[in-house]
GTP cyclohydrolase-2 (Aquitalea magnusonii), 207 residues
Amino acid sequence: MAVQYPNPQIEPVVDYVASCKLPTPFGVFTMHGFEEQDSRREHVVLTMGDVADGLPVLARLHSECLTGDALFSLRCDCGFQLEAALDAIAKEGRGALLYLRQEGRGIGLINKIRAYKLQDGGADTVEANEQLGFPADMRDFRVARHMLDALNIKSVRVMTNNPRKLETLKNAGIDVVERVPLMVGRNPHNDHYLDTKAAKLGHMLFS
Ligand SMILES: Nc1nc2c(ncn2[C@@H]2O[C@H](COP(=O)(O)OP(=O)(O)OP(=O)(O)O)[C@@H](O)[C@H]2O)c(=O)[nH]1
Ligand SMILES: [Zn+2]
């Protein structure tokens, strides 16, 4: 069985490091860098507008997907969601995108490649994780709460299709006031994957 990180028994400590401007095709964001003390994992938050005014903030808590976010993979919907979230924040002129380094729902990139190989052989996304000895989802969102606290973000309107993720966020101490759907990027390569997420992981992917 895989070792879970961060350890659920130990509250993670996350240090704010520095902020800078980040111009993008969607608009100019401010990028805030954070570092987790134990794992030295580096996370960023992109913000736009005044997010510390106490009002709910449009937010995306995006888990790293190197293949979808940076390498144009059509196996999932991550890259499309990343773009749509940045676009939505820019259109509203205010919001936050937390880019969380928990690749492959927490199993890491190399294990995700192993999982994809099993999926190439017929397993679905959940079965593949289980065959490798991992739970379907190993993510831990307590790190995100620390980053929201550091930025004085009191409550969030979360862009997600995953109601279970909202529960996980609430259990991590994050004040979620609304779910904002983020349905983009369905294509022939991820059709089955998205159907599996809806059937087995509870995602609301049908309007
Ligand atoms: N283990 C595993 N991880 C995957 C797979 N496809 C995508 N991921 C990872 O899943 C994470 C994204 O989680 P999802 O379950 O797609 O979406 P979600 O964040 O729960 O829900 P949304 O907010 O609606 O996107 C990223 O870390 C991806 O790297 C897969 O087949 N296997
Ligand atoms: Zn992905």
Notes: Helices lie at 66-69, 78-92, 109-120, 125-131, 142-150, 163-171, 191-201.
